[in-house]
Amino acid sequence: MIRSYSFKNFYSFLEETEVSLLANKQVPDSNNLTTLKDGQRVSKVMTVLGHNASGKTKLLMPLAFMSWFMSRSFQDIAPDALIPIEPHLASDSDVISCKVEFMLAHDKKNIYRYELDLTKTQVNREALYVKDKRFKYLFIREWDEETKQYQVKQQGFGLKPTEAKKVRKNASLIATAAQYGVDVAKELVGFADRIATNVTMVGKRNFDDGLLGESTLFYNENKHFLEKLNTHIKRLDFGVEGISIKTITLPESS
Q1: Are 22 and 41 in contact (CB under 8 A)?
Q2: At what angle do helices 223-236 and 209-221 cross, to 10 degrees?
Q3: 3-state secondary structure of 65
Q4: Which residues contact 69 (CB under 8 A, 6 or more apart)?
Q5: Per-domain residue ranges for the chain?
Q6: pLDDT band for position 232 (50/70/90)?
Q7: In this predicted model, what pLDDT tens digit does every residue of 39-76 receive, in sequence order?
């Protein structure tokens, strides 16, 4: 579960910006909130309103980027490729900063915090913390400009120090460690892979055949949700009367 995330110098956002799903005491209880083991309430729903080109998609992109970087950066880009990210055009720095706090589905006690400072060419700093009573680091990876290599500190993370120092400049230590079978890394990759969105680290995903098939199957098996969907479609005045699903048998290919 995502608790909050923040970012700075990320595409159209120059100043540090935070998106928090945590609810304070002034927010009344409702079905939109869930209470965690530490007593903190977290919203299950958030709505962002704004006109076209106001930054709504860019607000979601840091989360999509961190999800991808944690889980797929080792596999998805070549060793010498640029990291698919851009700083703000008006910034005098090329360093982009991102941070996310979250909890794993099976672990209702510990809070994780992932921090990332990077440019298009390399990771400057990457760190993972876990909080039971207080935050402590599982690893901190920092680029040493003098030695031209990474300094990596670990506390119970489990990646061999010799392998940790060799992690590529354009890849996450977490994504790399998962390839070596590090249990914590595999859990985190699984968490990141489950973040579903129609926004990728480079922008909006306009169409996805796989998601269309999954959605069709879901609504076909859950007719009451299809009725709710059609109610909202009419209310939002898209010019669409409604959606119906029909099952057909395709001819066998010869």
Answers
A1: yes
A2: 110
A3: helix
A4: 83, 116, 172, 175, 201
A5: 2-204, 207-254
A6: confident
A7: 889 998 888 888 888 888 899 999 999 999 999 999 99
